[in-house]
Amino acid sequence: MQTIVERHPGLTPPDRRAELLREPGFGKVFTDHMAMAWWRDGEWTAPRITPRRPLALDPAAAVLHYAQEIFEGMKAYRTEEGEVLLFRPEVNAKRFARSAERMAMPQVPEALFSAAVEALIRTDRDWIPSGEGSLYLRPFMIATEAFLGVRPATEYLFCVLACPVGAYFKGGAKPVTVWASTTFTRAAAGGTGAAKCGGNYAGSLIAQAEAIRHGCDQVVFLDAAEHRWIEELGGMNVFFLVDGTLITPPLTGTILEGVTRSSLLTLAREEGLKVEERPYDFETLKADAASGRLTEAFACGTAAVVAAIGEVRHAAGAFAIAGGVEGPVTSTLRRRLTDIQRGQAPDPHGWTRRV
Ligand code: COI
Q1: Residue 167 pLDDT level (bands cut at 50, 70, 90)
Q2: What pLDDT sits at residue 296?
Q3: Strand, helix or coil for residue 110
Q4: Which of 35, 130, 230, 291 is the one with CA 20 to 30 A from 137?
Q5: What's the predicted TM-score (pTM) here?
Q6: What's the family (predicted)?
Q7: What letter would DSSP give residue 126?
Q8: 173 or 53, which is more confident?
């Protein structure tokens, strides 16, 4: 696909870039360019790489009023040989299309999605950290039509940002503490829980703030109907190792179908683990932790990768998991995944794409 590239007239100087890449954190440092395509008159324009700059939006743009917005998160890695590998971009493209459908937005064809992401990576290739870091790509789409009636907009912007990143959590690889919220829920049956739309994250912020007030890194949501079944964290999926079986909540339409989640399910089966996608309730989690049947738990997502859960806090108390230290299954699965992502292990499933 033809991509127009408009180079930034004042690129970040190499020494400043090197300084920014030393400790990028998560989501704070951005590259010099972005990719954009517009939906007008029922079709997409070709993608365009432009300098990263503020957007000019009409204050009546539908996204500002009715939150017609979706996004994705994906990563590119620099290998030891200096190649650039993008992890499972076609899975993100398909999920983006499903999110678009749920939010009554036009679908971005996979070819356009990939062309935009890959052109941005090539243009800002010097921003990809080596070693532990990666380049986080943030494709998103917003409704730009200036119109205050409540109906799907007729104009949209598809945009991709790139961000060199390090660890998602401040504590790095240290096990995280999670807060089980009984006050707030994330998604109900028939709602937008399976779509990666900004509204889901906006709705999670108050629960995340509650988690932080209780000294936790993340919130764990329970289901909206019974306040009983574990669903997912504020922005990541969750796994439990019980009696040697790896359990993760099923995809019933209220949780996000994580790319990391699906990759770990495959890797866990390859490791010979018994894997179950099934409902797991909070009372059983407490009992399994108390009896020692629960030996590990971890959160996972593109941004967080795999983060061991060392402690769970809730309104009536707190309990540790595996003495608060990361267990061997969590470490093995993380290493298997990141070795493939960074080109340090064979990739039998063809998950990485050279850019
Ligand atoms: C991701 O893991 O890519 C996400 O979108 C989660 C977000 C909370 C950073």
Answers
A1: confident
A2: 97
A3: helix
A4: 230
A5: 0.95
A6: Belongs to the class-IV pyridoxal-phosphate-dependent aminotransferase family.
A7: G
A8: 53
301 CA → ligand 1 middle, Å = 6
Q: What per-residue confidence (pLDDT) applies to 256?
A: 96
Sequence length of the chain is 355
Residue nearest to atom 7 of ligand 1 (CA): 235
> Which atom from ligand 1 is nearest to the alpha carbon of 71?
5
- Contact predicate 220/312, CB 8 Å: yes
Residue of the CA atom closest to atom 8 of ligand 1: 235
d(CA 84, CA 353): 8
DSSP state of 324: G
Q: Quick one: DSSP state of residue 12?
A: P
For residue 257, CA distances in Å to 57, 100, 214, 328 come to 31, 15, 28, 25
d(CA 236, CA 177): 14
Question: Does the structure's ipTM exceed the value 0.90?
Answer: yes
CA of 309 to the centre of ligand 1 (A): 17
Burial classification of residue 151, based on how many CB atoms lie within 10 Å of its CB (0-12 exposed, 13-18 middle, 19 or more buried)? exposed
- The CATH fold assigned to 4-165 is D-amino Acid Aminotransferase; Chain A, domain 1 (3.30.470)
Query: What is the band of 144 on the pLDDT scale with cuts at 50, 70, 90?
Result: very high
Structure tokens, 39:
């939906």
pLDDT at 311: 97
